Task: structure prediction
Amino acid sequence: MDTQNAVAELQSSLGQRITRSKSDLDLHGRSESHFSLSPPDAVAYPETTEEVTQIVRICARHRLPVVGWGTGTSLEGQAQAFSGGVVVDFSRMNRILRIAAEDMTVTVQPGVTREALNEELRATGLFFPVDPGANASLGGMASTRASGTTAVRYGTMRDNVRALEVVTATGAVIRTGTAARKSASGYDLTALFVGAEGTLGLITELTLRLYGQPEAISSAVCAFETVRDAVDCVIDTIQCGIPMARIELMDTDSVRAVNAYAAMGLPERPHLLLEFHGSPASVAEQAETFGAIAADHAASGFAQATRSEERTALWTMRHNAYYAILAARPGARAIVTDICVPISRLAQAIDETRADLTQAGVQGPILGHVGDGNFHAILLVDETDPAEIARAQAASDRMVARSLALGGTATGEHGIGVGKLGYMEREHGAGWAMMGAIKQALDPDNILNPGKLVPPRN
Amino acid sequence: MDTQNAVAELQSSLGQRITRSKSDLDLHGRSESHFSLSPPDAVAYPETTEEVTQIVRICARHRLPVVGWGTGTSLEGQAQAFSGGVVVDFSRMNRILRIAAEDMTVTVQPGVTREALNEELRATGLFFPVDPGANASLGGMASTRASGTTAVRYGTMRDNVRALEVVTATGAVIRTGTAARKSASGYDLTALFVGAEGTLGLITELTLRLYGQPEAISSAVCAFETVRDAVDCVIDTIQCGIPMARIELMDTDSVRAVNAYAAMGLPERPHLLLEFHGSPASVAEQAETFGAIAADHAASGFAQATRSEERTALWTMRHNAYYAILAARPGARAIVTDICVPISRLAQAIDETRADLTQAGVQGPILGHVGDGNFHAILLVDETDPAEIARAQAASDRMVARSLALGGTATGEHGIGVGKLGYMEREHGAGWAMMGAIKQALDPDNILNPGKLVPPRN
Result:
């Protein structure tokens, strides 16, 4: 590893767009989570795919790690260069290249954020639905297989990336997928790169699936006696075929937090937050059918919001719930858990988690994308109290063990990075070694985001 | 390669369930397509995953190829053992292991056929939608990434396989995916095995996504002046957000063929065949909206069929269209093409194909899953006329070239096998070499379905 020479070579091709300033390194050494600052050796700001290939080739020659960076909003340290090297910041590759309205696709550079894309799409009658909360970059969302509140209807990034351009570990450029809606031609390389967290290649272009903006949208909220009632209502709703656009759970502690944070005035009980998309007649029918199912589960206060401002208020509350929960314990930091179980086991998983947290004396309001069986307990800890952090970490480990025992996964949407590396073998068994073999085949010198996701090299 | 000893070892573990009888070898050496008979060295009929691991381990030790076999209905020679070896016939691994109604999933052995599954599901109110026409096995459908008439609404096997159990090249058993609806944990090995045509492992168990049987179903048919009118109508329909369950094109030649074959009495013009799924109100709304769009494109004869018998007659006609087309030229055999293009280029692709076939003097009625941009020209050739076969093959090559030039793929749903191997490099460029590197990493001795899909080994 010859950092000085590598950076000198990079400067000759990128000029000012490679930097080693302390502020830039620090900015790209942080994370949204609790991982410690780990500044890279340099930060590069490529503007073209050709420049990305140059960066990778130079780094490959000098065995310097290359780590992609979107908006730095990933939660498991995915974009941190723990082994040093060059962080490739895609913020200057932020052009929308082609909107193909008839094909309902868009081709973008990886630095385009989801909000910027939807702003640009507004006039076309189309939209891109995947919404992880943060205004993340689409390259980062693909690399981490992001999802969020709308996955129950529109799927995750797995379902919405149709084609990619990728720079490989040798600096070659490949294209995966086509502009067609389906193909039976060869290994699904697109799916392999989605969720690979930059360990197999750097995504330099994405073709994404779009949807028609719904003619009508209606949101709703209702309260339940117990989490189990709420989850049973979700199961019946999905089985009934109601194409829910969003169906989110807030447990009583979360409701208390948003009430305190935003004066929402909700009854202090578990709530479902809902959204229906469709034609006006279809939305009305969906809401009516849902209302009947909710009544069967002793729901109360089922109220629809069809006006745009009311809907915005509801989803702003949901998106800010994390901050509301953080504010519930001033000075605390959060350990965010992310398990996802078969929906039939969801009530059990939440009940057991709640009981476990209570017994362990860990404060942890629960928010969930319950239509997918995915939920987060936001564990609030005093950063200066190692014993409390250890208690919370142990509770988080037990949540993962519980999820795996119930047929679920350690992470529904936040990914692995380094934060969940310790669960990989347990979840995948010999499949994890297979992931390592693929990594070894495609990146033999281990320069692409080393130390993440796959088994450590010997 | 030591076939005698390998078979002797296999006999000691499988007894009568490994055979070398000529009839069995011939039965497993054929294909639905024009590939010549290529009997394997032996056919094994495992009943358990454990037996599959034994077969693979013994074959690996003796460097004998192992080729999976479902129902033998693949179209590109995927299941033929062109290099000899053992064909693993999964027909005895045909148990439905678990119906998880609340999770809307089912876990099956690979030999279960789609019709057997849906028969079993009937009483549950759920169904499995992927319908490639043939009553294929679900293991084979996953391995070839099958789709068919319903993919426009429910997706292909890519979208409907949630988890797999796979026996790898070393005889290890791995599990990919979980029972949860989504996961951000690691490389998407499930997607890697779906469509890999048995070159990376043998699928021994599948967890599939199910859907609620629609409360109401309505079919319809209508005629257009031109293929372009029909395709423009499809584009508008999809953009409008009508969740079409099926939307199929038959060109004039195909309509003539089904009229002759089944006395359908349809006007000799391009037709769309449609199906709507939903609540009664939603189906009525969908049909009404479609009717208005169709009228804008000068459609005629828009007639709905809500009674089950009428619907069955319509889709039986569609499923038999291939045979109707074959019957249009007695004694001919078919070269079935399978291109898939962005829907915006579909009318152009069909028009140019039609003109090309006319000019080349090749008879080739066209059928299409037009909601996906996928269509088949069924090229009818006299098997005894090499010049005619060469003309048809050249026209087929031009179709693929056209598809790739328009941003599409060489195969929407039939897969690669050996039949489309010649197009892989052109379609995937350096991505094809990457597929080869993955194959080399996971099956270094090249025993799993050798000679298919990836670049030939040196």
Summary: Residues 3-91 of chain A form a domain with the Uridine Diphospho-n-acetylenolpyruvylglucosamine Reductase; domain 2 fold (CATH 3.30.43.10). The mean pLDDT of chain A is 95.
